[in-house]
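As agreed, record copied across for absentees:
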Amino acid sequence: MNVRALQYFVKLADLKHFSKAAEACFVSQPTLSTQIRKLEEELGVQLVERAPRKVMLTPVGEEIAIRARGVLNDIEQIRTAARRNSNPAEGTMRLGIFPTLAPYLLPHVIPSIRKAYPKLKLQLSEEKTDDILEMLRRGELDAALLALPIDDDGLTVKPLFEEPFVLAVSEDHPLADKKKVCVDDLRGSELLLLEEGHCMRNHALEVCELSGASERVDFHATSMETLRQMVAAEVGITLMPLLSVKPPIAATGNVVIRAFKAPVPSRTIAMVWRNSSALSSFFETLAEPFGDLPKDLLQVP
C-alpha cells in the first residue's frame, strides 16, 4: 500500500465522485481510478461500487476509509513533528475560520502576524463550524478560529476575545430612535437569521429565546452581507457581530446599528487545535496576535 493511493481513496470516499476527487487531488481521473483499482487488487476486496453518475463505498470500503483517514492523520503528525523540530514559524499552517468572522477579523490581524512571522505561510480555509471541526479531526487543518462553545474533548481551546453583538434595523424602524436597546426590546420581533450550519444562527436563536423574539421562517440568508441588504430593504431586523460593522467594512445605506445595554449578547472567539498536535506550543504563541485587537475595535458604536 502506498500513501498516495490511500489519499486518493479517502478523497473519493469524501466526495463520492471520481472527477471531483481527481480534481481535488490534482491528478487526472484515469490516474486516480487506476490507483483505486490497484488498491483493491492488493487488498483483494472491492472498495467502491461503480455506477453511472453514482459512486458508493462497499461496507468494507467504508471501514477501510475510516482506518485510512487515521493512517493519513498519523502520517501528517509525523510531518508536523518534523516541522516542529526545524522551525514551525517558517512552515505552512492550515487554519480554518468560519464565514461570519473571516472577512471581518483577518484584515485586522494578518498584517501583525506577517510582521511577527514573515516566513510563516497561512493556508486559510473558510468553512462552516461543523465542517471545520471535521477537518480538524481528520488532520486536514492544523488549527482553527471558532466561536465557543466547542464540545470536543480531543481539542485544546484557547479563548481570544469576546465579541459583542449589535442590532441592525432600518432607519424607519421604531428601535432606530433609541440610542441603545435592551434584549427585552426584541420581544415579539421576528429576526432574520442565517441558514442552518452557521454558528451565528445558533447564537441569534439563543438571544431570541432570552428576549421572547422569534426567527422569520420564510427567509434564511447564506451570509452576513445578505442579512445586511435585507435589513436595508426593510425586510426585517437582525443581529450582527460587532466586527462586521467596523471599518474597513463600509456603512450600508438605510441600516442603523444600535448597541445593546448590559447584559450585552456576545460570542467568545477562540483558537482550537488537536490535543495531540505536535505544534501545540507554537499555537499557544501564535494565538496571541489573533486576540490582540485594538481596544476601540471591540467597543460598540
The radius of gyration is 23 Å. The first strand starts at residue 48 and ends at 51. The chain has three domains: 3-82, 88-160+269-293, 162-266. Residues 59-86 form the longest helix (28 residues).
